Amino acid sequence: MKATSFFMRDPLLIPLAALVAGIMAGRVLEFSRGESLWPIAVFAALALLSKRPVLRWILATLAMFFAGAFTVAWHRPGAPLVIDAGPRELVTLEGCVVEPSAIGAEREQFTIELAPNARARVSMALGENVAALKLPYGQRVEVEARVRPPRNFQNPGAFDYAGYLSRQKIYWTASIPASLARNGGAVRRLQDGCGSKFQQALFAIRGAALDRLASLYQGDPYSTGMMDAILIGDTARLEKIWTENFRRTGTFHALVISGTHVAVLAGVLLFLLRLCALPEMMALTATASAAWLYALVSGFTPPVARAAGGFSLYLFARFFFRRGRVLNLLAAVAIVFLLWDPSELSDASFLLSFLSVAAIGALAAPLIEKTFGPRTSGLRELGETSIDPHVEPAVAQFRIEVRLAAETVREITRIPLSWCQAALVWPLRLLFFGLEIAVISAVIQIGLALPMAQLFHRVSFTGLSANLMIAPILEAVVPLGFAAIFTNWHWVAALAAGLLKIAARTADWHARLEPNWRISNPPAWLALALVLSLLLFAVVFEKRWLRWPAGFAVAASFGLLLWQPWPAHVVAGELELTTIDVGQGDSLLLLFPQGKRVVIDSGGVLEYGRVKRKPNLDMGEDVVSPYLWNRGIRKLDVLVATHAHADHVGGALALLDNFHPEELWVGSNPPEELVAQATARGVRVLELRATVPFEYSGAQVEVLSPPEDYAAAKTGNNDSLAFRIAYGSTSFLLTGDMESPMEYRLLADGRLSHADVLKVGHHGSKTSTTQPFLDAVSPSIALISSGYANSFGHPHPSVIERLTEKHIAILRTDEDGLSTVRSDGKQIHFEPFSWRDHSDRAAAFNWAMAEEGPP
């Protein structure tokens, strides 16, 4: 069999590949609409006129290529929309509520449309004096809030949050100040309504379902939040800690609304309709309609819409008495969605959904068909011997052997033969079902290994057995949950919640067995090798003599992905200091000349008062770790917690788990939970005080603060560890959140000296970086870690003024994103992530170097 037969059986794969190539080319080359439209017309016309099939396919493929480029040009955004207001300025917004209120434990969130396809997501903190608004779809409102455009963390490898929101036409986030929320004047309902009646009806159904779930699971926040997410796609009440072990074991896909949900619900509904003797085509049509209704009510997320589209195409194929092929249907759905919105190609859910189904169709299905699959179908009507001549010889022999075994059991037990056959058939069916799930799960794990490593830096080792046990349980939860919604029967709801908790305990058990093996970004050559080996295996599977070498290539590429033999992106013989953009917080990567790797602080979200739930954004897991993995860093030598404030140590537990440091360095009043967790993991904890300089990995390290006799009853900024690192004739000074009292103490003790690079204390607050301190240090470069448009006003204008007057080059994470300073012991170089126009900073740096002389 020729390799091309693989594509001839599924002819839509080639147009899909051409469309994807065109989309990628359109992004890089930026074709205009006209430049991509006329080739479509020319190649399509030539394809229609051509009488040679091969030439017709080539021309049609070229037309699809330019169709991809055209759809990119068509969807290319115009000039960015602007609201003329500063980030701390209150503005009045008027618009239509297009996403009704989603209420979590401490926050209410809704989306308003200010103009066609221009939306703002509004959030308001809830509390004792702030009641929820519960705004419905179609309510016109006037909102007073602080508005700003979404901003990504400016680090290599960071998640494109702004792009994610823009695909939903959301271009601003707005926050209602607590003072206005308490007074009840922040949101005013206007008289005239808005929106469409159809959408209003859909959201009414959605709201009724959520209300029914809240009633069924009253007093059980876990079941309420999880069932809201699983059945309706509402994650407002979902806490990240509840789903973490599902993520670790590779079973999170079974929790979120996906194509599996549609398949399960469609299967149950189709079974019930056929049970009611409804004709097949009517049952299929009713099921497809229900799938689209569910897709609309659950928020029309891409995975559900794709599944509903796939089911509709299957119905279309059945109508014309054609056997639907998985890959062909998948390619057709992908072509439709990519033509509708080419940005889907960058969406993680699209990639994972597409690749998982492709892996099943191209790899798992052939494996099952070549092994135990025919025997599964051979168990049907086992007693009918007339079927044997019409099946494969191996299957016929298998049927005979099972019948003989059943007859043997009958002779021994005197039980009726039909009972004996059933007693053998059902266990065999369960065995084959388990094998089928195991094969599919293993193939999906390998097929999705590359995107999972790139996007989530995970490859689950327990995923095979976890999926085998958890997926069927959660598939049963979906129909039971909807049955509870429709009937309001509490016992059905309790059964669904019980199954959900069994699945959660199963995930917890697997998570304890799962090694915390995280994958750094693989090099391009390995990614290409894994993709090509998987394609080769799928294409040549029918040829036994090629199947084994291709399978070995897949196994070798997959093994290399797990082994990670590639080196980290680290320059030997240099001292590097990188300020990672973690918003309003601190996190520094310090790489020493002889290879030691140190992370100082881990960012985090500031917390005030009593905190009911941890934030879903973990700076250590979601921001700092991805940057380190992007650099190929998998292990840390030291994790430093300068002091116990949440914006410095909030992500430290994730770094302990992900990078297994050998030591934890802490200052005064160290964070108790972090110290306890580090000790439990066998990490050596060192509480440092001011010391004489000591050699460390090719550089000299001197701890300046806190002093030996320092003691404070309350956690504060002056607990911070402060370091001076010298390499050759260059030096860096890192001060944490150290404030003016400690700066004056160091001045009085004569501990301060010149440093070329200063990490400015306390995010540039006016409480730090006093003039005498700055005069004593006299740096050439100042690094400031502060959040974009933060509510504290950091860095303070007076600090910027003092730095500017001394001609110090200033690099700020809120403006420049991640910034890196490198020293070879003689010269210093700096690189900001967002290189806009730094001529003034370069001039300041050069002026300072000229004043001091070369290092």
Describe the overall structure:
With 855 residues, the chain is of the alpha/beta class. It folds into five domains: 5-75, no CATH class; 81-195, OB fold (Dihydrolipoamide Acetyltransferase, E2P) (Beta Barrel); 200-345 and 461-518, no CATH class; 524-563, no CATH class; 575-606 and 615-852, Metallo-beta-lactamase, Chain A. Helix content is 51%, strand content 14%. It has 31 helices and 21 strands. An eight-stranded mixed sheet has the order 12-11-10-9-8-7-20-21, with helices on one face. Strand 7 and strand 8 form a beta hairpin. Helix 2 packs parallel to helix 13 (326-340), helix 10 (259-275) packs across helix 12 and helix 23 crosses helix 25 (652-659). The radius of gyration is 31 Å and the shape is globular. The mean pLDDT is 85.
